[in-house]
Amino acid sequence: MFDKLFGWGKKPAASDPEIPFGRYSDNNKTVEKTNRWTDADNLYKEKKYHESIDAFFDYLRDENADNVQLERNGAEFKFRIYQGSKIVRGSGDAEHLRAEVSLAKMPQPSVPVMRRLLEQNFTLYYNRYALDGERLCMRFDSDIHTANPNKLYYALKELATKADKQDDLLVQDFSSLESLDTEHIGEVPEAERETKYAFLQKWISETLQEVQSLDKEKFSGGIAYLLLTLAFRIDYLLCPEGKLQSELEKIPVLYFTKDERPAQVKNEEMISAFEKLLALPRETVFKNLFRSKSSFAIVAPQPHKTIADAIYAANNNMIWYRDNNYHHIARQICEYGIAYCQYSYSLPKPLSELFLLLMKVNYADYFTSLGYADRYYDDTANKFNDAGIIERINHIQQAWKKKYNQFEFKTANLRFDSLLNFNHSFTAELEQLNFDSK
Q1: 93-140, pLDDT tens digit by residue?
Q2: Which secondary-structure segment (H or E) carries 213?
Q3: CA distances, 424 to each of 244, 317, 322, 335, 356 (Å)
Q4: What angle, 0 to 180 degrees and rounded to 10, lies between the N-to-C axes of helices 349-362 and 327-344?
Q5: Which of 62, 338, 428, 432 has the fewest CB neighbours in a 10 Å radius?
Q6: Which class for 149: exposed (0-12), middle (13-18), buried (19 or more C-beta within 10 A)?
Q7: Cβ(286)–Cβ(197) under 8 Å?
Q8: Any idea what DSSP says for residue 189?
Q9: Using an 8 Å Cβ cutoff, are 163 and 99 in contact?
Q10: Does domain 31-179 have CATH number 1.20.140.10?
Q11: Dihedral angle over CA of 89, 125, 52, 39, nearest 10
Q12: Which of 163, 93, 97 is nearest to 128 (CA)?
């Protein structure tokens, strides 16, 4: 009966849509891929430069995403690296390696554009902006004998990630520029865009309404948690790109910038920023929702202790709100600890998969609207799909046991009596995970 009412019947996995969530993490390499980095490093030390480059690109390649392509003809080679809305195109021979990204087309010279790029040039370590006719681009080059794996990784990462961010901002900030080399970007289905727009409106409206009902001074901490968690949730579940992503990224900066502004002022600034997002036309939001491949994370990995400390601090701060019956705020604070880490760090793949499960439990209506078959929680009846949740956790553990042989999530410690207690027990287990290997 419950299967029919809540859609908990087991359906083929193929019935779920293939929708990416969250920022790309390259902290997800298999043991075999990690070994290819070691191969690249050893081959370079042996002065087998071309073999080292082959091993490096093999390490970088994610076969599932088809994000890196390398073609070799003797000493000559060509490669492509996908990063968001941009493609890094490169080539090499016996002596040199070159890489380039097209940013935008500039039919007419523009002083403001050139000033922007000149300023940005000073932020680059390995690359440079260039003008090739009407084409704005970024370039990197190196002698083969100095192209060690570390240099290649950080140079190509800078080239790819900076170009991916700048191209959208340049075109949207300067009307004289035209988009260039974006044919590879995938379309998001209309129904998915409608769902994402609807929940963007829903989540912001509901959060702002709740914030307005709270005492701004007494609950300044709780309000900050609500607003920051909202920003991280939108970033993860909606995957905005371009200008929308850029505007969203400014919201946490408003709060975390270290200055003399009191928390209430920072909260008001975040509220104002969310109101601007809420007012964005549907067409603008749709324009900044598209499919893309990536090869580099825009954030860095951290030791699990850093993640565990963030989860512990959030769960500890949750207690007052729980004990004083502000259960919704308490739930958001439990979500905040791991959501902050997902936003700020490049997490190991199994931890990201567990976070996705947590989001599927807490926002089941969103995933149902997107077309996902499994429903892990029904809020109207406070009913959990216990077996489905535990099955999914066990599947994640089994899939990653080879790489993380001390990785264990104790499902017996989960509580299924309320969403708050589930979130608390689930994130407490995330805190205790061990990603070391014997």
Answers
A1: 999 999 999 999 999 989 999 999 999 999 999 999 999 999 999 999
A2: none
A3: 31, 12, 10, 9, 16
A4: 150
A5: 432
A6: buried
A7: yes
A8: P
A9: no
A10: no
A11: -120
A12: 163
Residue length of the chain: 438
Structure-token pair, residue 123: 């932020």
Where b means 16+ CB within 10 Å and e means fewer, 129-141 reads beeeeeebbbebb
DSSP 243: H
For residue 183, the model assigns a pLDDT of 83
348 and 404 Cβ atoms separated by less than 8 Å: yes
pLDDT in tens, 349-381: 999 999 999 999 999 999 999 999 989 999 999
The CA distance from 332 to 327, in Å, is 9
Tell me which residue has tokens 């997002």. 277
DSSP state letters, 239-285: ---HHHHHHHHHHHHHHHS-SS--HHHHHHHHHHHHHHHHTS-HHHH
Express each pLDDT in 33-79 by its tens digit. Answer: 889 999 999 999 999 999 999 999 999 998 888 899 999 999 999 99
List the structure tokens of 275: 């109101």
Q: Rounded to a whole number, what is the largest CA-CA distance in the chain?
A: 70
Separation CA 88–CA 102 (nearest Å): 8
- Tokens 């209430």 belong to residue: 264
Q: Which residue has the tokens 């093999």?
A: 58
> Are 144 and 96 spatial neighbours (Cβ–Cβ below 8 Å)?
yes
